[in-house]
Specification:
about 500 residues; alpha/beta; Arc Repressor Mutant, subunit A; Aspartate Aminotransferase, domain 2; Aspartate Aminotransferase, domain 1; 3 domains; 17 helices; globular
């Protein structure tokens, strides 16, 4: 369908005989927004004008618009009226739902359709630094000028070979710089040859799943856990087995009960995603012993372990591995900026050659010039300095979040002070749904994720995930005030439902 851009030009499909008019209008407008036929930011006409345009009652239009607002598809701002939201949550997944469900004609493979269920695309757009986006570092504090000077120098002196075919494993100076860094800062034991450069951690997870697992293999997955890992496993045809989390990390004994023959375990031991727990030493040893005895693999995902606010960063699980069963996954997107799209794997020596061969037919090799710039940035000490600076800045922003929460969220949310990482968990103190609160917060212009969205089977109490690293102090304070309104509104709605049910 053509992108008409405005409501005035939009042609709606006929209403079904047994369909409520307001539901029909809501579904038609939602589809137009999700499919991109209505441009993001386009102004919504008044309910009176829409009623006249489509020949229906004004109350019907009001009901449909209210539902669109509640679900975050349109937003109302003082002085500018109602507009289509700039960033639609899960736009791509929702828009593709009909494609996945449609069995007629040539379509996706059965395995792909299965792996895309529940998938989503992270928001893009100009809203950098919005409270409480949890996947974004402090882009406002990144030394852009320094990065530009480093880039210019590398490009000016780059040999012609950098413009030819690169290594499938990555630029050797970068691999050497990474091996030295993770050895000193994370206790990882590896040679530069064991480092495989990837296009971010997500590609690393995809490569590990596709190269080490067969379709139907069972994999222990932290529950709640990282959806990106879940999708990578499903895309490889593996069967994720949700394993509960306790105060020491993934419950190995429960994993054995649920799937004694699992071929792999995915863990985030330094800073469990999303609960923020640190896996205990005894649990790490238990997990390593299980893998060695079961001839299984462990994926250790360290996405933001450098940011620890109490004591020194906990050493990597990989440093305790003597059986060669741990694959270490790292990324620079959380340490520098999202769009750099460079990460790495540290694989056991026996996997170096297979991964080099396998990587060569996936995307040949990562961009050599980008790798050379990053290698220079690390070797000159800028990377280490930046990480230390961000650790201090994030600690200060966490402090602002905690203070503002005590002032405005008391009795509504119990915000846990993060020990590490870029996000905190805020537990609902009263009745209510974290999904309802998150939806209302989105409607008010925040980016808040419900904890329930990261659980597959072993549900936790209702809570919200609040990112604090990527937002300035004033934005955090503003966000807390708005969040208090969102929580209070959701609780009032829950209370009205309860009274009406009684």
């Amino acid at each position: 369908m053509a992108k008409v851009g405005s409501f005035q030009d939009l042609v709606l499909r006929p209403c079904g005989d047994k369909q409520d008019l307001w539901r029909w209008l809501f579904a038609e407008l939602r589809s137009a927004i999700l499919e991109g036929r209505l441009r993001a930011g386009s102004r919504v006409p008044s309910s009176r004008n829409l009623a006249v345009q489509h020949g229906i009652a004004r109350g019907t239009v009001v009901s449909a618009l209210n539902q669109l607002k509640a679900e975050g598809y349109v937003v109302t701002e003082s002085g500018s009226g109602t507009r289509v939201a700039l960033e639609i949550p899960y736009r791509s997944a929702s828009a593709s739902a009909s494609t996945l469900a449609n069995p007629s004609g040539a379509t996706l493979s059965r395995r792909t359709r299965q792996s895309l269920k529940g998938a989503y695309v992270l928001s893009t757009g100009p809203s950098i630094g919005r409270a409480f986006r949890s996947y974004e570092p402090a882009i406002d504090l990144f030394p852009v000028e320094l990065w530009a000077r480093t880039s210019a120098r590398v490009l000016r002196h780059a040999p012609r070979s950098f413009y030819g075919q690169g290594s499938a494993c990555g630029h050797m100076p970068l691999r050497k710089a990474i091996s030295e860094y993770v050895g000193a800062s994370r206790g990882v034991r590896c040679s530069p040859q064991q480092v495989i450069i990837t296009s971010g951690a997500q590609q690393g997870l995809d490569l590990v799943a596709r190269f080490l697992l067969d379709p139907g293999d069972q994999v222990w997955m932290e529950d709640p856990g990282y959806p990106g890992a879940l999708q990578a496993l499903r895309a490889a045809g593996a069967v994720p087995v949700p394993v509960p989390i306790d105060g020491e990390g993934l419950c190995v004994a429960e994993g054995v009960k649920l799937s004694a023959r699992a071929r792999m375990a995915y863990v985030t031991p330094a800073n469990q995603f999303p609960l923020g727990l640190t896996m205990s030493v005894s649990r790490r040893v238990e997990l390593l012993n299980w893998a060695a005895k079961s001839d299984a693999w462990i994926i250790e995902d360290e996405y933001d372990a450098e940011y620890r606010y109490r004591g020194r960063p906990v050493a990597a699980l990989q440093g305790l591995d003597h059986a060669g069963c741990v694959v270490y996954v790292g990324t620079f997107t959380k340490l520098l900026f999202n769009s750099i799209r460079l990460g790495f794997l540290v694989v056991p020596e026996r996997l170096v050659e297979p991964f080099e061969l396998g990587r060569s037919y996936v995307d040949r090799h990562p961009p050599t010039l980008d790798q050379a710039i990053l290698a220079e940035f690390i070797s000159e000490g800028h990377f280490g300095h930046h990480v230390r600076k961000m650790r201090q800045a994030y600690a200060e922003r966490l402090g602002v979040l905690m203070l503002a929460s005590k002032q405005h969220l008391k009795g509504l949310l119990n915000v846990t002070e993060a020990v590490a990482g870029m996000r905190s968990v805020a537990w609902l103190t009263g009745p209510g749904s974290d999904t309802d609160v998150a939806r209302r917060a989105t409607q008010l212009g925040l980016e808040v994720a419900p904890l329930s969205a990261f659980s597959v089977q072993h549900g936790q109490k209702d809570a919200l995930i609040l990112g604090f690293a990527g937002s300035k102090e004033d934005e955090i304070r503003r966000g807390v005030v708005v969040l208090a309104k969102a929580v209070a509104g959701a609780l009032q709605k829950t209370d009205r439902r309860h009274r009406s049910a009684v």
